[in-house]
Design a protein that fits this description.
29% of the residues lie in helices and 37% in strands. By secondary structure, the protein is an alpha+beta fold. The protein has 2 domains: 17-97, Alpha-Beta Plaits; 101-174, ACT-like. Chain A, domain 2 (Alpha-Beta Plaits), CATH 3.30.70. The protein is elongated, with a radius of gyration of 19 Å.
């Protein structure tokens, strides 16, 4: 096992490998069935999907699917092997052991009477979020960042009363620039 994989694998108290979050990037032909085939693969074999994002790629006719899942090394190996067999899949990359950038977007509608708006705006500024809509009794906030950042901002906004939340799930790309260490 490589040093990176050894660091990434955690052991439970009884010495067995425990489940770990993995981010998998899948390049597919943009077809009607590509997403349903991949989701069917996961559900048919009992693999968990924590989040899944699907969108057009940089080239016409291609799309990128970012899947976050979890499992021990054997499960993740099975997922990768099965993804390679899907008809429309062109490339599969488990980004977990490589440097990568990952972002999630959340739109959060918060109850915002006049008396608490300045406090909400301070929290929005701390998280470098944006207020994208406002009404007499609510504000809609856009938060972009890591899953931890989105969760933390939701935690801070919860005290005002969250009316509605829409989250994208993660999108990720391999980091190309490594810099000097």
């Amino acid at each position: 096992m490589s040093e990176t994989k050894a660091k990434a694998t955690t052991m439970s108290h009884n010495g067995e490998q425990s489940s770990r979050k993995h981010t998998i990037s899948v390049l597919v032909k943009h077809s009607f069935n590509a997403l349903s085939r991949i989701v069917g693969l996961f559900s048919g074999r009992g693999f968990d999907i924590d989040s899944i994002s699907f969108g057009e790629g940089q080239e016409p006719g291609l799309a990128r699917i970012t899947i976050t899942t979890h499992g021990d090394e054997q499960i993740i190996e099975q997922i990768n092997k099965q993804l390679h067999k899907v008809v429309d899949v062109l490339k599969v990359a488990d980004l977990t052991y490589e440097p990568f950038v990952e972002r999630e977007l959340a739109l959060v509608k918060v109850s915002a009477p006049q008396s608490v708006r300045s406090e909400i705006m301070q929290i929005v500024n701390v998280f470098r979020a944006k207020i994208i809509d406002i009404s007499h009794d609510s504000m809609t906030v856009e938060v972009t960042g890591s899953q931890d950042k989105v969760n933390a901002s939701l935690g801070m906004l919860r005290q005002f009363g969250i009316v509605e939340v829409a989250r994208t799930g993660s999108v990720a790309l391999k980091r190309e620039y490594q810099g000097q260490t």
